[in-house]
Amino acid sequence: MISSGLREALQRWLAELSAVGGRAPKTVNAYRTDVSGFLAFLQAHLGDAAGIVVLGKLATRDMRAWMAHERGRGVSARSLARSLSAVKNFVGWVAEREGFDPSTVLMTRSPRFQNKLPRPLDVSAARAMIDTVELQATTDWVARRDAAVVTLLYGCGLRIS
Fold this sequence. Notes:
The termini are far apart. The protein has helices at residues 4-19, 25-46, 52-56, 60-72, 77-98, 103-106, 123-136, 140-156. It has 2 domains: 4-106, DNA polymerase, domain 1 (Orthogonal Bundle), CATH 1.10.150; 123-156, no CATH class. With 161 residues, it is mainly alpha-helical.
């Protein structure tokens, strides 16, 4: 159970993200889930004393314990990095209003993760794309040119970027 002070702070932060920050409802909901999970962990980790004051007293070991707990639950490195970003944003926002130094939380490093390599199209999808490209052109020579370029990109495994 999250303390009432932290719950109120979370609601105000989320309301500000929606109203002033212009965040999408799904983004706000994702932030709510991430930060609520963090605050629930703090409640269990630090005991009943986990109020707003505790955010200013967090140590690196507390942040590492939370991250280890999340990884133990099977949260991927990419999802944990997103959660950590939400937590840093929230703690920074609270620190600004309550007047404490959030540097311990803000200096917590995100977990490293591998960027996924792009996956190639299968043959039928590539053929469909080439046929679609040909249909979009207004003149015959443009259709042939576009089809040739797309065929070259696919056949050689090239990316537009």
